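A quick aside before the break. I want you to see a complete sequence-to-structure record at least once, exactly as it would be stored in a machine-readable document. Don't worry about memorizing anything.
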Amino acid sequence: MFKFNKTALLAVGLSLLNGCAFMPEDGSRAKLLEMPSLKQTLNGDAQAEKIVSEWPRAQWWQEFHNAELNRLIDTALKDSPSLHAAAARLTQAEAVADFQAAEMLPSLYANAELHHRRFSATDFYGPAGGQTFTGAYIDPVVFRYHLDLWGKDKSNLEAALGKERAQASELAMARLMLSTAIARSYIRLCAAEEDIELAHALSEKAGEKRQLAELRWQRGLTSQDLVYAAEQLLEAARQRETAVRNQSQVLRNRLAALVGQGPDWGRSIHVQKTEVAGHLPQPEALSLGLLAHRPDVAAAMWQVESAAQLINVAKTNFYPDVNLVGFAGLRSLNLKDLFLSHGASVAYGMGPTVSLPIFEGGRLEAELKNQQAVYDAAAESYNGTLLAAVQQVADSLAEWRKTLEHDAAQERALEAAGAASTLAGKRYRAGLSTRDGIIDAEAALVQQRLTASELHSAHLLAAVGLIEALGGGYENTTMRVSSKVGHND
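That is the input. The structure line, written in tokens, reads:
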């Protein structure tokens, strides 16, 4: 008996060694890009570095010191359908990872079968042939354990964990895109509401010019051409005021939709003065921290990690699969003998089951080729995401610096317009100029205020864009990529 067991074990061992399907050679895989250099691009100026001290915080919008903006974003993070959908995808990925983790553990369950069957008289059942029996198989203990000899279960688990982490990063990206979209729309709304007042002031100045031209024409001091010209300017100012009011309403509707509410909800949005006094990242730290602070880059990297593990899974399919199976219970053809046979119905067994891939018609090769292509696509997608992220940082920094300069220049222009308006008032009161001069100077001051509002809004939008480019406070501390892509650890 011992000799037979030894021979059987030897046969099983030879089967494991020789029962593998032919595995094709590895082709060349896509290469992951190194982090591009940003040293010259990120050579910051003194103005920007005054407020650049650390990475954006997770609740970066609080740095704008606007209670209404805080309320809008906090509401959106709780009520947005798009975020709820992203959270559901993350929960699904977590469940898949839990399932794969459970697959690595032994399973223990019970079986019970009650049957009524007739055995053929012409088959090999011997004395039982041609008879009908009512019996039962009861196995209160059935044991199964997959011997993960080639690391298939481990790779499946790592792939599932990679997808889970990718979904977590994508959820963070969805939060970032939603919060920055709300911030941009709210900044534009504040600018629109301010522009409504300034556009109305311009309409009033154009109306004064129209009345003055009408009065002069009626008194025969000028031709009617000047009246028509003033009328055109007045209507243009009114059109601008109407357009700004319409823009304000559209922005309110958009904000309500982003927050997950109806259009009427948007009418209750309050407009408050917004100033950026936030914490943006140190330029010299960007190239090192970008990979860990961009959720889209992290998600793309985790997709690469998952795809690399699935190549390992596809390779293990070329090897024999071994399960350890056992059972213990009662089995009898006659139901009456099941418990009255004084132990004769007791049955048990334990041993390995081996499946050998001998001929699969190219299925295994096709699956391996598919997983390798999935990895290549994921790697190239990561490369594209990384390049886009670097470009976005560079563009956002350039826009940030431009708005700093324009904002400062417009402040000087606004001061000059204010001084010119004051001087025009003095001249008019001193009788040195006509009423036209003071109206034109005051209109020019209002126009400069409109430009200042536009440039200040652009400056705030640039700040939001830079925060978005830097990941908006996202922090990934677990990122890694398999050093041996397509091989078992």
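Two observations worth writing down. The chain has two domains: 33-104+151-319+360-469, 107-147+321-355. The domain at 107-147+321-355 is CATH 2.20.200.10 (Outer membrane efflux proteins (OEP)). We'll return to this after the break.
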